[in-house]
Amino acid sequence: MAISSTESKQQRHYDEIAEAYNQHYSDEWSTKYRDRFFHQAMFEGVDLHGKRVLDAMCGYGDATRYLLEQGADVTGLDISPSQIEAYTERWGCEGLARSILDNGLPSESFDIIVACGALHHMPPYLDETMEEILRLLKPGGFFCFVEPHAHSILEKPRQWWYARDPLFEDNEQAIDIDALQEAFQDRFSSMETTFRGSFAYLLVLNSMIFRLPLWTKKYYSPLMFWLENFTDRFGIRLFTLYVVARWRKR
């Protein structure tokens, strides 16, 4: 399958950092974070049992574990052959080493498509990615995603960091959820969004970005979870870091 030059750079980049990335984002505390703060909000009211689900741009498949536990029939899709090899070995379900933009899958073949921290890697092909997700979704199917959003008070510092930290590629950027909703509002019958994320998102889930040793996470994570539970009650997007979305295709 053909891939763009941007995707090729992303593939090489994440193959280089894959080992450290998987250690930090798939450890015990990051897994607890995903279940508590991502998955419950993403799939609220969505019956996953027996549904055909695409874990798009899946990486090591941290969302796949939750989906399989709920009885879903999961396929993983990622541009990195090494990540897909690890994915299929880890979860025992179908994994495809292909670009989301050129995946060769039949139209309307999935009940649910999931993207966790994937869309912000897709500029300048975000609209094309959304079109492909819509093509793959059955009518009435759900697109559930979590992405850093561009309306945060920390957006300027984040842009500064993205431009200087070698852990990020130069095309990565937080999602302007307002613009995305406006562009695709005629294609989805409902577009539910929740703004979340503060202390635990930064220091627990993203421990790799802050170069925090894995062994220290067990000491500070419980306090960070408590603080994030408190701040998430308000859901004020200016003071949050990511958006959780559950959109339904018309």
Explain what this protein looks like in three dimensions.
This protein has 250 residues and is of the alpha/beta class. Helices cover 43% and strands 20% of the residues. The chain has nine helices and seven strands. The chain has helices spanning 5-25, 28-42, 62-69, 81-91, 126-136, 155-164, 177-184, 199-205, 217-232, and strands spanning 52-56, 73-78, 94-97, 110-116, 137-148, 188-196, 242-249. A seven-stranded mixed β-sheet has the order 3-2-1-4-5-7-6, sandwiched between helices. Helix 2 (28-42) packs across helix 8. The chain is globular and about 45 Å long. The mean pLDDT is 92.
Structural features:
alpha/beta; 250 residues
What topology does this entry show?
Blueprint: H1 5-25, H2 28-42, E1 52-56, H3 62-69, E2 73-78, H4 81-91, E3 94-97, E4 110-116, H5 126-136, E5 137-148, H6 155-164, H7 177-184, E6 188-196, H8 199-205, H9 217-232, E7 242-249
The gist of it:
The chain has 250 residues and is of the alpha/beta class. It has nine helices and seven strands; from the N terminus they run ααβαβαββαβααβααβ.
Low-pLDDT regions: none
Structural class: alpha/beta
Strand line-up of the largest beta sheet: 3-2-1-4-5-7-6
Number of E-type strands = 7
Mean pLDDT: 92
Fraction of residues in H or I helices? 40-55%
Q: Which radius of gyration do the C-alpha atoms yield? A: 17 Å
Shape: globular
Distance from N terminus to C terminus (CA atoms, Å) equals: 29 Å
Order of helices and strands: HHEHEHEEHEHHEHHE
Q: Beta-strand level of the residues, as a percent range?
A: 15-25%
Largest sheet, strands/sense/barrel: 7 strands, mixed
Count of helices? 9
